[in-house]
Each structure stands twice: as C-alpha cells, then as structure tokens.
C-alpha cells in the first residue's frame, strides 16, 4: 500500500522507525525488534538506510519481512551521495523486485572526508537527483526529508524551503521532518512551507529521548533546540535510567497529543529499535488512537 493512501484521512495515525544493523551478527536481534514493533500494528514503518549504503540489503530484508509477516506497509530509505548512478539504479531495481512501493529519498550526510572536496565529479549532489531517478525507474510513492529548524548546511530558511519545494515539484509526495522538541518550531515551519506553496502531507518526526546519553548525540545529529522544560527533565532524572525512560516517553507523548490536538493526524516516532518505547507511547494514546 502506498503511504499517501493512508495520509490525509481524519483518522489519527502513528508510524515507527527502525534502523538496520551495521554487522550481520546483529541482524537477528534487529529483525526481532522490528517484528515486535510491527506486531503493535502501526500505520506504517520506516527502515533507515546505513550511511554510505553498507547495509542496503538489510534495509530491504527488514522492510520485506515486516510487510510479508505483519502486513504493515513499509517505507524503505535510500541515500545517494556516496554512490554511483549504476549502484543506485541496481538498488532501485532490487526494491522493485522485492515489491517495495514506498521509498524515502535522501541525499545522506556528508562525511568529514567529503567536506571541502571538489564535488563536480560526483554522480549525486542532492536528494532531488535521486527523486528524479526514482520517478524514472518506477511508480514509487516517494517521501523526502525536511527540517523545521533548517538543514545545517543551509544559510537561510528561505533557501532551505525553496530547495524543499523543488524536491516536492520533482516528485516527493510527502515529507517527514527531522526531530524537534518544541512543537511551535514545527507549527511555524508548516505555516512557512504552506505559504511557499508546498501542499503535500508533512509528517512530524518525534524522538523519545529515553536515556541521558542520547541527549548530546541527538542535538549533535539534528541541531535541535532543547527547551528548558526538557533540560530540567534530563537534569532531574538523567541519572536514573528507569525514571529517565519514563519521563522521556511522557515528554514525547505530550508532544504527540499536542500535534493531534492541533489537527496533525500523522505522527512518526523515531523508535530506535525499542519495542518497549513504541508500545508505551501507544498505550499512553490508546483512547485517542482508537477514535
Ligand atoms: P537534500 O535535500 O539534498 O538537502 C541537503 C542540503 O542541501 C540542504 O541544506 C538543502 O537546502 C540543500 N539543497 C537541496 N537541494 C539543493 C539544490 N538543488 N541546490 C543547492 N542546495 C540544495 N541519513 C541516512 O544516511 N540514512 C537514512 O535513512 C536517513 N533518514 C532520514 C530521515 C529523515 C526524516 C531525515 C530528516 C533525515 C534522514 N537522514 C538519513 C539524514 C539525511 O541524509 C541528512 O539530513 C542529509 O544531510 C540531508 O539529506 P536530504 O535528503 O535532506 O538532502
């Protein structure tokens, strides 16, 4: 099923993300976690793509397993910046053969070695090139990434939104956001992109921070603003793993309730291969999601 068929209804939906392992010895553990999350019956699941493409096969294997065993539609991520046109062409063929209908088209992060290099010879520079190739190679439902707090490489939000519109015009039919911890940033962003003429569904991505060690990593990765309310929570409970987990799930739940209450019907949870986190959030929202 194409994800766009799920979006845009009055029903409140929740989707979850898993990431593939880096090495084969972890594959079964990750697959078991993904299966446990799929068994919770989310609207769809996304499976990320290892930077550089080293785990591309795992992305496909996990996505097809979830679709076949649980009937949960999957969104397979694909990056391009570190790849040749031929490699990506083959990966798209593999996806088609595996029956993948939904693809998240991403550029991928630039590694420190890539920064400052002459890029004129690269096959890919931006996600839009992958979106165009996906459109040429098949009838995929294509998602793309967006950044309520501006992508770190952009010099202004206006420029970032202009490039986002190009991605949508090239064929992305929905957008998923980078994580954020202050919903007002998302609502402001939504207002601005609608004003810029981007009309497709936008799925907010919420990251439950369930241990104190995640905080620095999450900020470094996303550049997200941490509200004082969240910092206080980490100060108070960060030293106590169980309390921090409970508080992090409560904070994420609160963000989701606020989004649903303000008319955003689809929320994506960066569940980080943690079935207990996905399950706890669903439990907290059981009455809201049953409507
Ligand atoms: P782009 O859309 O190419 O944007 C990158 C930067 O270039 C932005 O500043 C943008 O404004 C600018 N830009 C875009 N188009 C142009 C243009 N034509 N000319 C000039 N500038 C332009 N990474 C992974 O490795 N694997 C994953 O599975 C993965 N999943 C993700 C899922 C989500 C929801 C998000 C938000 C991010 C994910 N990432 C993943 C991280 C992502 O690869 C990085 O954020 C990366 O730095 C940018 O990817 P993009 O697709 O947004 O790139």
Structural description of this entry:
The chain is α/β, with parallel strands linked by helices and 291 residues long. It has a single domain (3-289), classed as TIM Barrel (Alpha-Beta Barrel). The protein is 47% helix and 13% strand. The protein has helices at 3-6, 27-38, 56-70, 85-97, 127-137, 157-170, 183-195, 212-222, 228-237, 241-261, 275-284, 286-289, and strands spanning 13-18, 45-47, 74-79, 102-106, 141-146, 174-177, 202-203, 205-206, 266-269. A nine-stranded parallel β-sheet has the order 7-6-5-4-3-2-1-9-8. α2 runs parallel beside α3, α4 (85-97) packs across α5 and α10 (241-261) packs across α11. The structure holds flavin-adenine dinucleotide. Flavin-adenine dinucleotide binds at residues 48-49, 51, 77, 79, 104, 106-109, 126-128, 145, 151, 153-154, 160, 163, 166-167, 176, 178, 205.
Keywords:
291 residues, alpha/beta, TIM Barrel, nine-stranded parallel sheet, 13% strand, binds flavin-adenine dinucleotide
Count every helix, treating DSSP H or I runs of 4 or more residues as helices. 12
- Name the CATH class: Alpha Beta
CATH topology: TIM Barrel
What percentage of the residues does DSSP assign to strands (E)? 5-15%
Concise account of the structure shown:
This protein has helices at residues 3-6, 27-38, 56-70, 85-97, 127-137, 157-170, 183-195, 212-222, 228-237, 241-261, 275-284, 286-289; strands at residues 13-18, 45-47, 74-79, 102-106, 141-146, 174-177, 202-203, 205-206, 266-269. It is α/β, with parallel strands linked by helices. The protein has one domain: TIM Barrel, CATH 3.20.20.
């Amino acid at each position: 099923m194409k994800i766009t068929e799920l979006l845009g209804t009055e029903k409140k939906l929740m989707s979850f993300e898993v990431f593939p392992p880096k090495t084969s010895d972890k594959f079964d553990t990750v697959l078991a976690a993904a299966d446990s999350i799929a068994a919770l019956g989310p609207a769809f699941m996304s499976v990320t793509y290892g930077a550089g493409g080293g785990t591309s096969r795992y992305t496909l294997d996990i996505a097809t397993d979830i679709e076949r065993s649980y009937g949960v539609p999957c969104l397979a991520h694909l990056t391009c910046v570190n790849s040749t046109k031929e490699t990506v062409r083959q990966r798209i063929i593999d996806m088609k053969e595996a029956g993948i209908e939904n693809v998240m088209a991403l550029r991928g992060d630039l590694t420190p070695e890539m920064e400052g290099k002459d890029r004129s010879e690269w096959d890919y520079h931006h996600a839009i090139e992958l979106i165009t190739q996906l459109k040429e190679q098949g009838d995929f439902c294509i998602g793309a990434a967006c950044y309520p707090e501006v992508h770190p490489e952009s010099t202004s939000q206006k420029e970032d939104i202009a490039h986002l519109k190009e991605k949508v015009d090239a064929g992305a039919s929905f957008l998923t956001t980078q994580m954020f911890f202050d919903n007002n940033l998302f609502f402001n962003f939504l207002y601005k992109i609608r004003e810029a003429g981007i009309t497709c569904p936008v799925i907010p991505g919420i990251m439950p921070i369930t241990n104190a060690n995640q905080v620095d990593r999450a900020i470094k990765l996303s550049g997200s603003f941490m509200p004082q309310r969240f910092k206080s929570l980490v100060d108070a409970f960060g030293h106590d793993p169980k309390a921090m987990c409970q508080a992090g799930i409560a904070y994420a739940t609160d963000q989701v309730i606020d989004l649903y209450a303000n008319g955003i019907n689809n929320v994506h949870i960066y569940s980080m291969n943690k079935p207990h986190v996905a399950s706890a959030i669903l439990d907290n929202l059981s009455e809201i999601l049953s409507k």
